[in-house]
Amino acid sequence: MTRGRPPRQGLGDAILVAMARGTVMSFMKNKESFCDFMIMSNSTLFFVQIRKARRLCGTREEMEREFREPVMQLRSFPSSGPIIKELWVYSRYGIWRFFRIEDAGIVEICQDGTPLKNSFIEVIRTQRAVHKKKPGSALVKVP
Between vectors from CA 31 to CA 28 and to CA 34, what angle results, nearest 5°? Predict the structure, then answer.
């Protein structure tokens, strides 16, 4: 049983991301549905479930524990070569993390579906280091 309301706020944003990857088919949400939409690419079907998170800064293992229910729902669906199951998680600030659900664990991916090379924490540190201070933000002594 899921807690809270369905993630309607993020569904619109997720559909836009999904449309960049292929044709999107949405599902009606009910008790039996295990995903929010499906992406049809050239030879692959992606079944995607989205969830809103209170915090996104955990490791893959922590995220798997936090979202145990949707991960287990996606794992219960039979998997084969052209079928990939993904969990997309977003925060109230509009930050997203994407995970591919596998039988042995979860793999963090980019929004285009490629495996993420750096962990989430390293990416945040890099983004903070790249941002410069706004001009005029420091106090300047005028002679």
Answer: 70
Mean pLDDT score, 6-32: 84
Domain with residue 81: its CATH number is 3.40.1350
Q: Encoding tokens for residue 59? A: 């490791």
CB 96 within 8 A of CB 89: yes
pLDDT band at 12, cuts 50/70/90?
A: confident
The boundaries of the domain holding residue 70 are 8-123
Q: How many domains in the chain?
A: 1
132: in domain: no
DSSP notation for 19-56: HTTSEEEE----TT---SEEEE-SS-EEEEEEEE-S--
